[in-house]
Amino acid sequence: MPSLQTVISCLSDYDPTALPVAHANRIIGEVVEPVRGIEQVPIRSALDRVLAEDIISPIDVPSHDNSAMDGYAFASSALQSAAGHVELEIAGTAFAGGGASSQPGAGKAVRIMTGAVMPEGCDTVVPQEFVEASADGSRIRFAADTVRAGDNRRLRGEDLARGQAALSAGRIIQPADLGLLASLGFAEVRVRRRLRVAFFSTGDELRSIGEPLDAGCVYDSNRYTLHGMLRRLNVELIDMGVVRDDPAALEAAFRSACENADAVITSGGVSVGEADYTKQIMASLGDVTFWKIAMRPGRPMAFGRIASGGRDALLFGLPGNPVAVMVTFYHFVRAALHRQMGASVPPLPLMRVRSAQAIRKKPGRTEYQRGILAPGQGGDWEVRITGQQGSGVLRSMSEANCFIVLAHEQDSVRAGDMVDVMLFDGLV
Ligand code: AMP
Ligand code: MG
User: Fold this and answer.
1) Which fold has domain 66-154?
2) pLDDT score of 274
3) What is the pLDDT of residues 94-129, one digit of tens each?
4) Ligand nearest to the CA of 243
5) From CA 226, how far away is CA 200, in angstroms rounded?
6) d(CA 428, CA 423)
7) How far apart are the CA of 31 and the centre of ligand 1, in A?
8) Cα of 293 to ligand 1 centre, how many Å?
9) Nearest CA to ligand 1 atom 23
10) Is the shortest distance between the CB of 371 and ligand 1 below 6 Å?
11) How many CB atoms lie within 10 A of CB 403?
12) Pick the CATH number of 53-61+160-191 from 3.40.140.10, 3.40.50.80, 3.30.390.30, 3.90.105.10
């Protein structure tokens, strides 16, 4: 595993006091490695887990040519000879699950249900609503131009051919994948073990819910947002509560977190000029760097790896401000944890939409404004900020449904300009 120093020394323009978001992510990406453990689980339990192997289809899906409609199967040669209308005699019925029926012969058709195997020699199905049946039901008649050769037939292997890759290792398993695995006959699948993530809040002004709120104190909300964000990543949580600003308590907490988890996330105590001990203890336990990231909100962040008792863990020391915690989590920690859990997750799409209002912005930092994307008066979707954007105003996150991402070099936005938005749906 490369050390931070090695990674950083390869960057020509590294400046920890004004680090662009993209650089920080590049450094994190090079330091983080996937956990190795693998377990085999029943497919239902594999939802939201990270697939540890490529899934190769052992069969053709579907396994036979079959009908896509309820109707009548016949050989398409009957269409060529037809003058305007095709008349066929019914030679039998094919039900779904019933196996292959024999060739009906020239001038004949087989009544067929959706999913039933195409009879020998038949390549086309005319849907039942297009035919006229004789009074005794022994014959059908339909206009020759209602179907073309091959219509309404699903081909063997058309969904997946035997030997074809169905899912790739690293995929986070989605509901459709459970169905796909089932359609291939897999009862179990190999997934990476779940990550264990320990987290705690630091700061003497923090009170836990249920405690009296003394003058100058605030309730610890970061552990709750972290709980929510981590749950969505389907990791195992180790909530270590609030840790006092006391060297012995902090060291004990960091050591215990490190010995029991793959990653440790803290909030608070990493700002420049912060009087408390958090940064000292982090630095004393490993390879940790303290950044001022060129972003808003969320400037200060500690990142690295700490070790204790022969175990090590990634460390993310997030800022204390409640919105900054969420923004740094989504824009650094989320991708890092995905990488550590062995997941390959495509970047979330940025959509370009019109800003309903002017937004002040200075070049030289990335801003993540909290936005509400909604249809404007003309019906086109547009975005506006949620109002107060202070990094302590958690309501701005709660009301928002997207980030308005204002890129590093971007200047102020005028009302009506196009801006990038990242929807919370899929992110949070
Ligand atoms: P810090 O990064 O420690 O300087 O904290 C910045 C601001 O965030 C301060 O106003 C803290 O009171 C607040 N803060 C820090 N941790 C928490 C927390 N766990 N819950 C709510 N607010 C917090
Ligand atoms: Mg503090």
Assistant:
1) Molybdopterin biosynthesis moeA protein; domain 3 (2.170.190)
2) 67
3) 999 988 888 898 899 999 999 999 999 999 999 999
4) 1
5) 9
6) 9
7) 28
8) 18
9) 320
10) no
11) 25
12) 3.90.105.10
- Kindly report, as residue ranges, where domains of CATH 2.40.340.10 are found in the chain: 351-423
pLDDT digits 0-9 by tens, 196-234: 999 999 999 999 999 999 999 999 999 999 999 999 999
DSSP state of 413: B
One CATH from 3.40.980.10, 3.10.20.80, 1.10.3720.10, 3.90.70.10 for 4-37+193-341: 3.40.980.10
- For residue 393, the CA-to-ligand 1 centroid distance in Å is 11
**What pTM was computed for the model?**
0.91
The answer, yes or no, to whether any atom of ligand 1 lies below 6 A from the CB of 225, is no
Query: What CATH code is assigned to 351-423?
Result: 2.40.340.10
DSSP lists the bridge partners of residue 80 as none
Closest by alpha carbon to 54, among 175, 193, 239, 181? Answer: 181
Give the residue carrying structure tokens 């370009």: 352
20 CB under 6 A from ligand 1? no
The residue whose CB lies within 8 Å of the most ligand 1 atoms, and thus the one to mutate among 321, 327, 391, 394, is 321
Q: Ligand 1 in contact with 218 (CB < 6 A)?
A: yes
